[in-house]
Each structure stands twice: as C-alpha cells, then as structure tokens.
Amino acid sequence: MLPHIHVIFGIIICSIISLIFPISLFELAVIFISSTVLIDLDHYFRYILIKKSVNPFSFWNWYKKGKEKHKEFSRSENRKFKEPLFIFHSVEFWVLILILSFFFPIFLFVLIGIVIHMFVDLAHLAYCEGMIYPKLSIIYTVYKDKNKKKFFDF
Questions:
Q1: Can you give the residue ranges of every domain in the chain?
Q2: pLDDT number for residue 61
Q3: What's the whole-model pTM score?
Q4: Angle value at C-alpha 35, between 53 and 49, nearest 5 degrees
Q5: pLDDT for 114-136, tens place per residue?
Q6: pLDDT recorded at residue 152
Q7: Hey, how many other C-beta atoms are within 10 angstroms of the C-beta on 152?
Q8: Is the per-residue pLDDT at 154 higher than 60?
Q9: CA of 70: how far to CAs of 5, 25, 49, 75, 102, in Å?
C-alpha cells in the first residue's frame, strides 16, 4: 500500500478517535505516526540490508521497480518466490508491543496505530488477492517459504 493511502486513513481514523476518546494530542500523534510511517520502516530496513544503501530516493525507485516486476507474473508464478519479511507487520512484533504497553502505556497507542495500519494493508491485500500471511507472521512466512526461490534482488 502506498504511503499517501495510509496518511489519508490515518487522518480519518485519528479524527474519529479524537472525537470518541479523551486522549491527548501527543497520544493521537503517536497513533498517527505509528500507523502511517513507523510501521513501514521495515520496508526501508529491508532495502538497507539488501542493497547496502540508505538513500531514500533509491529505496523508492527500487520499491516501485520490485512492485512492477511482481505485476509481470501471474499469482501462481508469484507463489514460487519467497515472500519478503516485514518484522513490524508481524504478530510477533505486535506481541512485543503489547507486552511493552503493560510497562509503558505509550506503547498501547503504538499498538493502536499498528492495528489501523494493518487493517488498511490487509484490506488492500484481500482486494488485490495478495498473500496475507507474509504481513502476519515472520515465523510462518519463513516456514512456508523454505523451499522457494528468491525474487530477484527484491
């Protein structure tokens, strides 16, 4: 899902939350930032690990190129390739954030932001008939993809 879609949904949902719940502007900002920006940093970190570059413009071009390559293949052909790992999108990470929220309440707002982000991501994947499991569990994705080939340099 492209960033501007997450920003739009983040604004709408944060506006609704602010009308229903008495939360501070800071807490609302944490929800908005975690739902629109922070959770998708795992895409950028993946780029850094693969390409050994921190250039955000090169990342964006690389990401768009990978998306276009994916579109060249049918759904059955795409299933032959390993799915990318997105740690911040995984249930394993969510559990960590949930545990941290018992000790540091601000993490509850981070978790709310993640839930908002994941709702938008999963709705998009369902609409596009994409694979949902890579956005849910790192462990399951590694298990499922152990005999698949790597998708080029993406």
A1: 3-144
A2: 92
A3: 0.81
A4: 20
A5: 999 988 888 888 787 666 776 78
A6: 62
A7: 10
A8: no
A9: 20, 40, 20, 9, 40
CB-count exposure of residue 115 (10 Å: 0-12, 13-18, 19+): middle
Residue for token pair 């959770």: 39
Lookup: tokens for 122 = 């999963």
Crossing angle of helices 25-36 and 3-20, rounded to 10°: 150
Show the 3-state SS of the chain: CCHHHHHHHHHHHHHHHHHHCCCCHHHHHHHHHHHHCHHHHHHHHHHHHHHCCCCHHHHHHHHHHHHHHHHHCCHHHHCCECCCCCHHHCHHHHHHHHHHHHHCCHHHHHHHHHHHHHHHHHHHHHHHCCCCHHHCCHHHHHHHCCCCECCCCC
Nearest C-alpha neighbor of 108 from the set 41, 21, 44, 4: 21
**Contact present, 117 and 35 (Cβ < 8 Å):** yes
Question: Two tokens at 40?
Answer: 């998708």
- 4 has a pLDDT exceeding 60: yes
Instruction: Output the six-digit token pair for 25.
Output: 């502007």
Is-contact 86 135, C-beta < 8 A?
A: yes
The answer to whether 82 and 151 have CB atoms below 8 angstroms apart is: yes
For residue 69, pLDDT over 70 is answered with: yes
